[in-house]
Design brief:
With about 140 residues, this protein is mainly beta. About 10% of the residues lie in helices and about 45% in strands. The protein has one domain: Pnp Oxidase, Chain A (Roll). The chain has helices spanning about 55-60, 95-100; strands at about 15-20, 30-35, 35-40, 45-50, 65-70, 75-90, 115-130. A 7-stranded antiparallel sheet has the order 2-1-5-6-7-4-3, sandwiched between helices. A hairpin with a 4-residue loop joins strand 3 and strand 4. The protein starts with 16 loop residues before the first strand and ends in a 5-residue tail after the last strand. About 20% of the residues are buried.
């Protein structure tokens, strides 16, 4: 598994990333999403609802890309490509990983049955970085 470059590791703490999946019609479907970096296994993890199109897309075709923009300088990015692994989280255990980053209110995010939460794990197969900031 490729390593995240030291010069861009801080972006793993960014508040939001852009997830790109492939829709059933073949077009990219792009959406902003919360994520956490799991220091234990080096993977990026998302907590998604089975009601959402992005979840349906990764279940059908696990190839996806997560793009993280530097909130202070969008010319600096971290692009992570990989295959999504989807695991059931009906018990909502993963919410405890989100609370330190996003706040306790995420515990109140609900899903209407029959929908529930899944954890999508993205293990990098390719990492691309950019830094187009002009020297000062």
């Amino acid at each position: 598994m490729p390593e995240f470059p030291d010069a861009h590791r801080d972006l793993l703490d960014a508040p939001v990333a852009i997830l790109s999946t492939q829709g059933a019609d073949g077009f990219p479907q792009v959406t902003a999403t919360w994520f956490v970096f799991d220091h234990d296994d080096g993977a990026l993890k998302l907590w998604l609802s089975t009601a959402r199109q992005k979840t349906k897309n990764v279940q059908r075709n696990p190839q996806c890309t997560l793009l993280i923009l530097d909130p202070a300088s969008p010319q600096r990015t971290l692009e992570v490509r990989g295959r999504a692994e989807v695991a059931d989280d009906s018990a909502r255990a993963f919410v405890d990983k989100l609370v330190p980053k996003y706040g306790d209110f995420v515990r109140n995010i609900g899903d209407q049955p029959p929908h529930h939460r899944v954890v999508v794990t993205l293990r990098p197969s390719k990492i691309n970085v950019t830094d187009l900031r002009r020297p000062r």
